[in-house]
Design a protein that fits this description.
The chain is mainly beta and about 280 residues long. It contains one helix and 16 strands.
Length: about 280
């Protein structure tokens, strides 16, 4: 835009030194200390589920929408990637999906990020990650499902030492295992480890459905006519996903569907892949 020159400072958090113009139940507006080129925004939403969109501007007049999650249910920490763009002002606008929003959002990081850009692609405005997003430290949560230990069992890294005793389950014919991701991701694969019994083969039948609003569902795996066991590698067309619903319909040993581990997408090993990169990507 004429009259503005944007600075590009790789991997510098521009939240520091910026000023918040307003932050209330309708959204938050932040002004960077100077016009800057960015490609990454990390925010912490209020506690309640909500939809939102993000606009940017160089002069607080002409706004451009860079994130549109109006049709999605979002919560907790949002790790958002956009194509590089020059901005001075950034505002998030809430579209409420519950009756009230009690707290404002917090901008955690705004940057031109080159350290972790290799971990994601952008497809139809959504993050298409190359790392597992079904993890508690990625702010995924279990809405339905029981665990022998704690609710994070299914949302933890796979530990080969615990595959015989740690699992999440639901009664056949009643309920399901339901996971909510913090934001929509464009996903096309799931890896799932079913319970392993060291003494005998256990077979399961199940379905997996996905949704962006917990109302309208799309089937991505139908294993109701095939006895399955151990590790499941599932591929499907790229799909926006916030909710993952796993429903067991048969178990050869008892009346429970038991799942040890869940991963989406199926992780691709990258040259510079490490846990520190993944934590904030």
């Amino acid at each position: 835009m004429i009259g503005f020159r944007a600075k590009r400072k790789p991997n510098v958090n521009l939240v520091e030194g910026s000023s918040v113009a307003y932050s209330n139940n309708s959204g938050t507006l932040i002004r960077l200390s100077h016009p800057s080129t960015i490609n990454y925004i990390k925010i912490k939403l209020p506690d309640e589920d909500l939809a939102y969109y993000i606009e940017v501007s160089m002069g607080d007049k002409d706004w451009m929408k860079v994130i549109d999650y109006s049709d999605y249910i979002c919560r907790s920490v949002q790790r958002l990637w956009v194509y590089p763009i020059a901005v001075w002002y950034i505002r998030i606008v809430y579209i409420r999906t519950k009756n009230t929003v009690n707290k404002s959002c917090k901008f955690v990081e705004i940057s031109y990020n080159t350290n972790r850009r290799h971990l994601v692609e952008i497809e139809d405005g959504l993050v298409a990650p190359k790392y597992n997003v079904v993890l508690w430290y990625k702010n995924a949560i279990i809405i339905e499902g029981e665990s022998r230990f704690d609710n994070n069992t299914l949302l933890d890294q796979l530990d080969e030492r615990d595959v015989y005793r740690r699992y999440t389950w639901h009664k056949l014919g009643s309920g399901c295992i339901l996971i909510q991701l913090p934001q929509p991701f464009m996903l096309s694969s799931i890896r799932m480890l079913l319970e392993i019994d060291p003494d005998e083969l256990v077979f399961f039948k199940y379905t997996i459905e996905v949704s962006v609003n917990n109302k309208e569902w799309k089937m991505v795996a139908n294993k109701t006519k095939k006895e399955t066991q151990s590790m499941q590698l599932l591929n499907f067309d790229p799909t926006p996903i916030v909710f993952i619903r796993i429903t067991g319909v048969h178990c050869s040993d008892g009346d429970e569907f038991r799942c040890v581990y869940l991963e989406a997408p199926i992780k691709i090993k990258l040259d510079s892949d490490d846990d520190s990169d993944e934590t904030d990507a």
